[in-house]
Recover the amino acids of this structure.
């Protein structure tokens, strides 16, 4: 005969049900981890294609001396011109604002500067759209009848403000992740540059070699070094290629490397010794950041320890005893 008696409870929760739910969540997380490990894509395929297009563009810009053909390389699309004309008529497009957005796009890894016009247009249109949707949802449909006038007005203002700041927040988040990835791989890249310089390679060949070696471990840094090698090969002034590298990376360490490279090009100082000093400095800085994070770890782990780890330990240790005590008080002991 099958018993329909409820399972043991702890603090009002069914222990078997909670354990089953936790086991299901763990199994789902394991499936996601296996899927993420199996479906790893090569991050360099798309980057290599973009760099090849950049190489062909630079090559065409150097070979073609005709002004008309040069203008065909930098012409804008019709849609971009229409958006720019519309924003200019609305008095919301300024050159300084356009340059700031282009700088943020470069930090986030977007090469096309024409996207800055769309970002400014989205910042003008998205708040209006989100404001209309919030007004219809809150006032017209009366989705939250229990809300007062102040709360509804605050929700409408929050929707408009979020629509205005959403493009910049996205660019800032992506630029921050890309900057962290470049910062992690820069000391290793400088070590490889030192080895290449001591081996007798030229600067553009050294950058190209480092990009190939670090492309899979640090795809963002490999992308930047490969593009710098291409620009060193085709641009008339090598200083321009180094300045473009500093422009695309929001990192003081990269600017220091660029300054060192420009000075060695100008004054003929040994490149390997200067890069070795910079590499040692960046490694010490990375070690100091790691030690700082390790020192903050006990304070950061206090809240997860109290909320998640200690309750689990209490359930595992005191759960069987609580179940036995509950059975004893209910009269359903093992002797009956």
């Amino acid at each position: 005969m099958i018993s329909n008696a409820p399972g043991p409870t702890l603090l009002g929760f069914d222990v078997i049900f909670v354990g089953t739910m936790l086991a299901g969540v763990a199994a789902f997380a394991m499936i996601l981890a296996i899927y993420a490990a199996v479906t790893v894509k090569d991050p360099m395929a798309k980057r290599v294609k973009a760099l090849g297009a950049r190489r062909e563009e630079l090559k065409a810009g150097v070979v073609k001396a005709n002004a008309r053909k040069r203008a065909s390389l930098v012409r804008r699309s019709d849609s971009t011109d229409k958006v720019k004309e519309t924003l200019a008529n609305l008095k919301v497009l300024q050159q300084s604002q356009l340059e700031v957005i282009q700088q943020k796009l470069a930090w986030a890894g977007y090469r096309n500067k024409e996207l800055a016009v769309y970002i400014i247009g989205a910042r003008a249109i998205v708040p209006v759209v989100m404001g209309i949707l919030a007004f219809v949802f809150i006032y017209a449909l009366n989705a939250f009848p229990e809300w007062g006038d102040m709360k509804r007005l605050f929700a409408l203002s929050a929707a408009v403000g979020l629509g205005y700041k959403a493009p910049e927040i996205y660019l800032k988040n992506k630029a921050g992740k890309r900057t962290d990835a470049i910062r992690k791989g820069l000391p290793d890249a400088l070590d490889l540059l030192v080895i290449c310089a001591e081996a007798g390679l030229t600067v553009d060949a050294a950058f190209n070699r480092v990009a190939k070696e670090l492309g899979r471990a640090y795809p963002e840094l490999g992308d930047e070094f490969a593009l710098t090698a291409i620009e060193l090969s085709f641009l008339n002034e090598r200083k321009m290629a180094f300045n473009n590298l500093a422009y695309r990376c929001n990192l003081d360490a990269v600017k220091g490397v660029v300054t060192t490279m420009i000075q060695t090009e100008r004054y003929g100082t040994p490149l390997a010794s200067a890069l070795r000093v910079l590499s040692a400095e960046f490694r010490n800085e990375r070690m100091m950041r790691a030690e700082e994070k390790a020192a903050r770890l006990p304070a950061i782990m206090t809240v997860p320890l109290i909320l998640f780890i200690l309750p689990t330990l209490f359930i595992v240790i005191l759960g069987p005893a609580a179940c036995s005590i509950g059975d004893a008080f209910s009269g359903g002991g093992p002797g009956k």
